[in-house]
Design goal:
- The protein has 150 residues and is α+β, with helices and mostly antiparallel strands.
- The chain has one domain: Beta Polymerase, domain 2.
- 42% of the residues lie in helices and 19% in strands.
- β5 and β6 form a beta hairpin.
- The longest helix is centred in the middle third of the chain and has 14 residues.
């Protein structure tokens, strides 16, 4: 069950037509391996049209947007954090080791509490985690690889 803030943000993204992928621990859970996390990570396509949709969704959600513009969501390397752990939402325009245009066709579409959700596909998730290389990322990859190897 999602906390209400996460559900509301995902619903706002869906309603606005944002092209996004859930990444991080919630993506890991969608691929069958839940683990504790303090945030929801959303990776958005960094294009002008999508940036406008992101801003529309954030306004509908009620996010504090002082000093935030649609150009931020067109710019590689942008990270917007909303709230604090354990209910923080991170919105990113780039991630390590994977291009959005490559990951989008391989996304996994799921439904969570009646909200359609786009999740990064397994192979692109693994590519991202391998590129990051942190201890938790290596553990996540090992858990997914065990599935492949039986």
């Amino acid at each position: 069950m999602l906390n209400p803030d996460y559900r509301d943000m995902l619903s706002a993204f869906t309603d606005a037509g944002v092209e996004y992928l859930v990444i991080g621990a919630y993506a890991l859970a969608a691929h069958g391996h839940p683990r504790a996390t303090g945030d929801l990570d959303l990776w958005v396509r960094p294009t002008p049209d999508n940036a406008e949709r992101v801003m529309t969704a954030l306004l509908a959600f009620g996010a504090p947007l002082t000093d935030v513009s649609h150009e931020d969501f067109e710019t590689p390397g942008t990270v917007l954090q909303i709230g604090v752990s354990p209910r923080r939402i991170d919105i990113l325009t780039t991630i390590e080791g994977v291009r959005f245009d490559d990951a989008w066709p391989g996304r996994v579409e799921i439904e969570v509490e009646d909200v359609p959700v786009s999740v990064i596909g397994r192979e692109h998730f693994i590519q991202n985690k391998e590129a990051l290389g942190r201890p938790q990322d290596r553990t996540d990859v090992e858990r997914l690889r065990k599935d492949e190897n039986g």
